[in-house]
Design the sequence.
């Protein structure tokens, strides 16, 4: 549920270098794989990688939950890395 929320909000890219065609199911699997969730008090910390063909954006943040409901989300760090393309 939390990974799907992050995918829907940030719509991360799945190109990590040379562009190529991808099936939608492969793209979704890459998006899921590139999000790391870390349990914390009241929710999750997360690391999300947004792959563009010549750069990768990395976001770190927190998701605050009340039961199964997401009540807040905040980016705490963002970085951009250039990659060969």
Sequence:
């Amino acid at each position: 549920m939390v990974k799907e929320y992050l995918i829907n909000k940030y719509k991360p890219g799945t190109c990590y270098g040379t562009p190529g065609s991808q099936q939608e199911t492969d793209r979704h699997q890459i998006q899921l794989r590139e999000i790391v969730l870390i349990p914390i008090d009241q929710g999750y910390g997360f690391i999300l990688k947004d792959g563009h063909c010549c750069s990768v954006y990395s976001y770190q943040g927190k998701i605050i939950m009340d039961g199964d409901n997401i009540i807040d989300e905040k980016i705490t760090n963002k970085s951009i890395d250039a990659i060969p393309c």
